[in-house]
Amino acid sequence: MFQLFASQPLYAPLRPLLAGLPANGAPPGVDKLNELAAGRGIVSGSGAALRFVVPHGSGMSYEERAWWLGEVETRPGNWHDAFNALVWMRFPQTKAALNRRHHQVVAAQRQAPAGGRRGPERDAVTQFDECGVIVAGSDLQLWEGIRAHRWKEVFWDARAHMQQTMRVFVFGHASYDLLRHPHIGLCGKAVFLHVDAAWLERPPGEQLADADARIAQRFSGGPGEASVYGRPRDFHPLPLLGIPGVTPDNATSDYYENTRQFRPLRLVAG
Predict the structure, then answer these.
(1) CA–CA separation, 33 vs 239, rounded Å?
(2) Which residue of 87, 116, 157, 268 has the smallest Cβ count within 10 Å?
(3) Range ranked top by mean pLDDT from 113-117, 123-127, 223-227, 228-232
(4) DSSP assignment of the chain, as one string?
(5) Model confidence over 204-221: pLDDT tens digits?
(6) Across the chain, what does the average pLDDT equal?
(7) CB atoms closer than 10 angstroms to residue 32
């Protein structure tokens, strides 16, 4: 397992934390996760000091428990939940912003006549939390190629240029979990940060911190204010196994001919 974490480039944001885990391949428990989080000053969307706890019958939802108590439910022996905890440590501002936004949306729904319906913004927050990807790049043409589903053009024809001018940070904890046993069609929900050439030369930790702060700001609309990402379709699909170097299989151009994985853009009439 830890050989995978060391070799798979998409685990890079979590690698400093993964390197500190026991070598037995088991997911870390709450004691180890709280040890890793100690001293980082991580807080929930309400500002409550964060800690990871084993689930118990509190009668509160995951998000509300994190908001009110700063307690993040983390099931023992569960990589999905362990990755969620590790993402809290590496993207603390965005995780707090998502928790805050979720709380605001739920509170507004409770006051609405049709209270109880999830709505598109709550779905968007959940989707990004589970499978979000941050794409930072200096070349807007490459991002336009991703938005237009010109997959072979971006991933193969412009391969070297993409590797020079673009960085991809997986945010979603479900995506990290799925990358342990990746399958054809594994797809993230991507957002874009336009950066300059100097940014691309910064150390990875600085890049990550800046990306975290900027994406958090986009989710941080106050009560009654719109988030930049108010609907699931505000994100763009990104086939993770097409990113250069993610799998040895994508080292040939034929790999990108599989339309089951690299789907063309579907035009909506209208």
Answers:
(1) 30
(2) 268
(3) 123-127
(4) -HHHHHH-GGGGGGHHHHTTS-TT-PPP-HHHHHHHHTTS--B-TTSPBPEEE-----SS-HHHHHHHH-EEE--TT-HHHHHHHHHHHHSHHHHHHHHHHHHHHHHHHHHSTTTT--HHHHHHHHHHHHHEEEEEES-HHHHHHHHTT-HHIIIIITHHHHHHHEEEEE--HHHHHHTTS--TT-EEEEEEEE--HHHHTS-HHHHHHHHHHHHHHHT---TTSPPS--SGGGSEEEEGGGSTTS-GGGGSGGGGG-TTTSPPPPPPP-
(5) 999 999 999 999 999 986
(6) 92
(7) 17
Helices 92-111, 79-90: crossing angle, 10 deg rounding: 110
Query: Could you read off the pLDDT of 146-169 as tens digits, one per residue?
Result: 999 999 999 999 999 999 999 999
| Neighbour-count burial of 20, counting CB atoms closer than 10 A to its CB (0-12 exposed, 13-18 middle, 19+ buried) | exposed
d(Cα 39, Cα 227) in Å, to the nearest integer?
30
Q: How wide is the angle at C-alpha 150 spanned by C-alphas 147 and 155, nearest 5°?
A: 105
Place of tokens 């151009």: 253
Res. 270 pLDDT band, cuts 50 70 90: very low
Determine the residue type at 239.
Answer: P
Break the chain into its structural domains and give their ranges.
Answer: 2-257
CA-nearest of 100, 110, 106, 90 to 70 is 100
